Amino acid sequence: MAKKKVLTVVKIQIEAGKASPAPPVGTALGPHGIAIMDFVKAYNAKTEAQAGTVVPTEITIYEDRTFDFILKTPPTAVLIREKAGLAKAADNPGAEVAGSINEADLEEIAKIKMPDLNANDLEAAKLQVRGTARSMGITVD
To answer: Which of the residues in the chain have pLDDT under 50?
Structure first.
């Protein structure tokens, strides 16, 4: 079987199970001529178990107007806010503290994010997550 030629790769973040042909999905995929409803149905079916979480998706669109997509792990900031019980991070990180998470939460987030991080081990992943928390004005106890 001949390899399909890739036309483009589109990256979007959509709430799990709630994709619709409206923006951002329609505006991101429409210009490439793929069947938007086919993507929406496939995405919603794959992500229904993660409902309520933002899931980054990498959609590979081929020249014959077919597509494949890969689901990534939720953004680190979303996971941190969830663990801290916050709706949003600090307006002025560094000068103000919005909340805190404990070391166990930090490790759990690092384990979830491990496949998408460029870290060699769990300790390096924890450092990356800790840096994201610091930039959000969230302390790690």
So the answer is: 1
